[in-house]
UniProtKB/TrEMBL annotation:
Domain Recombinase: 173-278
Signal peptide: none
InterPro entries, per database record: DNA_bind_recomb_sf, DNA_bind_recombinase_dom, Resolv_N, Resolvase-like_N_sf, SSR_resolvase
Domain Resolvase/invertase-type recombinase catalytic per the UniProt entry, residue ranges: 19-165
SUPFAM superfamilies cross-referenced by the UniProt entry: Resolvase-like (SSF53041)
Highest taxon in the source lineage: Archaea
Pfam families linked: Recombinase, Resolvase
Record-linked PROSITE patterns: RECOMBINASE_DNA_BIND, RECOMBINASES_3
Protein name: Recombinase family protein
Amino acid sequence: MMNEALSESQDSGVDDYVAVAIYARTSSKSQQFGYSLNEQVRQCLKQCEVQNWTVRFIYRDEAESGKDIERPMFQKMMAGAERRWFDVILFWKLDRFSRSLMHAVQLESGLREYGVGLFSVTEQIDTTTAAGRFNFRNIASAAEFERDMIQQRTQMGLRALAMDHKWPNDRPPLGYTKLPDERLSIDSEASDLVRAIFESYIEERSMPRVARKLNENRSLTSQGNKWCPRAVGDILRNELYTGQYSVGDVSEYVSEYRIIPDDVFVRATEIRMRFQNRSVPQRQMEPSRKERIVRDVMDTYVEFLKSGQASLTDPKKTI
């Protein structure tokens, strides 16, 4: 159960008085390895004794998983920091406080504006001193540099792969299989389904109707799921079916990847764009024109009442 415990302590009057908020977070997975909330808090309390700090608040979050970003007590703690209720946020380990080092850097930058520092029991993270802040930023800079290098290597690898017309993941689009050399090969049965989707859409002019027909025939997507209008739209928009291979910054025509003729793809696109344009809000009618139309309609209706006709569309019938 998540809770917040407040320890009432009075300022001792000593100039070096430091008020601390302890933050502990755990998940069912981490508790299996002994990183319980109580153990985290106990380690933090021991650190406060060493530092001669006064514990003012203890915030505890028990999430279902480490990816849980709700963390209600964390949000309360950050609100308390904004009100300057304490000087330091103390935690057992960085991954209990933030989801990543770069996320911690962002949080530290905001907390610094409120005069609140960070301190980790198990790591060399201490932003309560100038030297500690300098060290923390160096660690963060190194992490950012490594991240940029990884991204650069990934982009270089992706470009090399794309130059050989290889597929970058293990999920090729419907109609293809991935060969051992990472290039694509047209699957005869699945490609027939792709052609049928284009033909059906040109005939039906409705993605929901196409999806319904596919599900009635028990056809599945490339991921083994039932069809929905969005999945149909993804097929209709994919230029790879015309042989246009686009991965990263490489865009080239690959004849052996073609499944759909250009004229069929263009026709489906025209129909799709026509329906999209219909959904665009129409320009507002000029007030003077609207007034004139209303006046004409009312004049017509008055004449109708005077004529005694039973119907505006049939002048032969009378009331």
